[in-house]
Amino acid sequence: MSAATAPVQKDLYSPLELFATDRLLDADERDIAATVRKFVDTKLRPNVGDWFESATLPKELGREFGALGLLGMHLQGYGCAGTNAVSYGLACMELEAGDSGFRSFVSVQGSLSMFSIYRYGSEEQKNEWLPRLATGEAIGCFGLTEPDFGSNPAGMRTRARRDGRDWVLDGTKMWITNGNLADVATVWARTGDGDGDISGFLVPTDTRVSPPTSSTRSCRCAPR
């Protein structure tokens, strides 16, 4: 055994652990997986049937996900946990085992909403939104998908035009995970006719927008 290999414990083996991948994880990674698994079993599973039927997820769960450090957990600074990619993947796997909607909520918040701000936002935007999104005080969504072209940016019809110092967005998005809970939306729109003329806009949801009008029979615990 090399010095970098975590010791294997007998209780890590079970009929469900067919490939014994737990032996490849370090202690912190196993602890994160176990913590999320316990949260799923005690807090989420008992309620998933009701939330599925009503196509809702209580917004206050965002703060509980935040308290566990799950929101934007792979990002550094701004109140984020700064874990590695393996830990993030394990957390998402455990959430997915409870319901795909739970994993969708967390991964859309962290990988789409928060990461787009983290990677492309101004320092002012990062400081305004990332700490609140990391704690679950605020919920974010990612407005890419459209009725006519799905998630294909090449077919995007939403347009953005200048109006003095402001931008005016005109278009339709649908199937936006977290959309009817979100406090801020990263909305993608065309600013011109060239291939690269697409920009993302941070839109607080108290801005005048139309409410969601459709539902699905999948991921119903990830409101859209």
UniProtKB/TrEMBL annotation:
Domain of life: Bacteria
Matches recorded under SUPFAM superfamilies: Acyl-CoA dehydrogenase NM domain-like (SSF56645)
Record keywords, A-Z: FAD, Flavoprotein, Oxidoreductase, Transit peptide
GO MF term set: fatty-acyl-CoA binding; flavin adenine dinucleotide binding; glutaryl-CoA dehydrogenase activity
Names of the cofactor(s): FAD
Residues in the signal sequence: none
Keyword Oxidoreductase: yes
Compositional bias annotation for Low complexity: 203-224
Residue intervals of the Acyl-CoA oxidase/dehydrogenase middle domain: 141-208
Family, similarity comment: Belongs to the acyl-CoA dehydrogenase family.
Protein name: Acyl-CoA dehydrogenase
Species name: Mycolicibacterium helvum
